[in-house]
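Supplementary Methods, section 5.1.

A reviewer requested that the exact input to the structure prediction be made available. We therefore reproduce it here, unchanged from the version used in the analyses.
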Amino acid sequence: MKFVTDEQKRFFQDNGFVKLEQVFTPQEVQQLSDELDYIIYNFANWDSAWRGPWRKDYVDDPTLREQIKLVAIHELQHYSSAWARAILKPELTEAVAELLDVDALEFHHCTLHAKPPKEGAPFPLHQDLPFYPHEDGLLYADCLLHLDDADEETGCIHFLPGSHKLGALEHICGPDTAPHLPTDQFRFEDTVGVPAKAGDVVVFYLWTIHGSAVNKSNRWRRIVRIGYRHPANRQTGGQAMGRPGIIVKGVRPKVEGIEVNVYGNWTPQPAKV
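The structure derived from this sequence is encoded token-by-token as follows.
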């Protein structure tokens, strides 16, 4: 059984992103949404908006520029059984494996990015590479699961088509700014928006350049990013570094130099008898 069409796979390989419609049913979205709201109001960080001088190129109003907000939290599967099931959903994992053209797939991480109404923060153009760098950006897929309908007014995701073919790029980084690409070289007006419905999943390569504008609507824009990789794709730093993920398709290949330390920093002790 195929989970993506040949046309979708070609589009993904050519452009670096693709939208998969209604991967999650309305009933699944409702449960995920309800449990996500609980997580947002009990555990999430409401002060996660990216900072930096790039804001002046994305927010015209100086007052709004200082007020923009982003709600974020990592690893939703540690807070909700519905989200634990979501990262294992075959309709998602099999589709990602087909898009990456791999026979084994490993879950890497899960992160909420929620833009509140009227003041939801923008994201400057960037690759996700600085946050969890891997040796091969074409063997890593980020998946944006939409919990709300997203359009231009809410600040839907935008991509620079074909940008994954540029490979790993140097980003502007520092203590006072989130990693981003130079705004004079990578312009938001050159990107393509991808509106999506609740239940849709937008998939893109680690090297695909993307960003989004301010949520100016009176609605939330809640998306959850789920990252998957081929298990042989070496991570070199960043989020979830050194932590093995669940194998969601196939079996983990044996790769010299990649250890699977399921105990983290804890060394198991012999049982006492």
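Residues 26-42 form the longest helix (17 residues). These observations are discussed further in the main text.
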